[in-house]
Write a structure and sequence with these properties.
By secondary structure, the protein is α/β, with parallel strands linked by helices. The chain has helices at about 50-60, 70-75, 90-100, 105-115, 120-130, 135-160, and strands at about 5-10, 30-35, 40-45, 60-65, 90, 160-165, 170-175.
Length: about 180
């Protein structure tokens, strides 16, 4: 793979403001961050740059993220006619759900696998966006991409990742991504 693009989005609206989780497509793109292995660089996008973001994803040999199919692609889909779900993708949450039978958070996986944490949460990111603190939203989103990349690379190298279960016990799950 010459160009793996790690990807995450933050939104302008929360689920309860758009009628619930069945309306993710209405949440609107606030900020997105990518990391391209071909360029060894992060890129930041706002909703005005959605076309550039989509073009970068289309150039990728592989797009990697956490909850891409359910969330990130759904948020981004209104900005393009291209079917984003057809991109070569590793959605780590989807793969973990298939292996475990339940959903785990990126924070639970990153904490147990890398001893790393997310810097905030999506609710705080929406608050920052609304108060005009776009730099904080970008930094938060970029941190999520860094953590996602670390989890993916660990799993690729070792064939497993760890997560904290609901009792905060560390469990291990094999991965093949």
């Amino acid at each position: 793979m010459n160009n793996i693009v790690f990807f995450d989005v933050e939104t302008k609206y929360l689920a309860d403001e758009v009628g619930g989780w069945d309306n993710i497509h209405r949440m609107e793109l606030a900020v997105a961050v990518t990391y391209s292995t071909a360029e060894a660089a992060y890129r930041h996008f706002t909703d005005e740059q959605a076309a550039d973001l989509i073009a970068e994803l289309q150039r990728a040999d592989l797009v990697v993220g956490f909850n891409l199919f359910r969330f990130d692609y759904t948020v981004l889909q209104p900005y393009t006619d291209f079917p984003l779900r057809t991109l070569p993708t590793v959605d780590m949450l989807q793969k973990l759900y298939r292996a475990l039978g339940f959903r785990v958070s990126l924070d639970a996986v990153a904490g147990a696998t890398l001893s790393a944490k997310k810097s905030a949460d999506g609710i705080q990111a929406v608050r920052w966006y609304r108060s005009g603190e776009i730099d904080k939203v970008i930094a938060y989103c970029q941190r999520d991409v860094e953590v996602t990349r670390g989890v993916y690379e660990f799993g690729k190298r070792h064939g497993f990742v760890r997560f904290h279960d609901r009792y905060y016990k560390v469990r291990q799950v094999p991965v093949n991504w």
